[in-house]
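Q: Here's a chain of 77 amino acids. Please give me its 3D structure as tokens.
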Amino acid sequence: MVELPLHIAWSGLRTLDLGLPRQRMSLYRTVLAEGMRDDLCRFLNRDILLELWPVLHKLISRAIKDVWEEAFPELRP
């Protein structure tokens, strides 16, 4: 279980069960969209991000997708 701070999850579910695939995807999507640098380091895991990216990149904005794929070429298809 992970509880996101209010500045990240300002509306909706704040406590997520990472054992549930939909909630894990929701956490990653929310942190990518709303998190600050420290939040990214605290809540995201490289291996899980790589696993989720094929679906996750369709759920986030083009700008966020482009920044992440530029910084981390291993995320590119």
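Q: Can you summarize the key feature?
A: Residues 2-75 form one domain.
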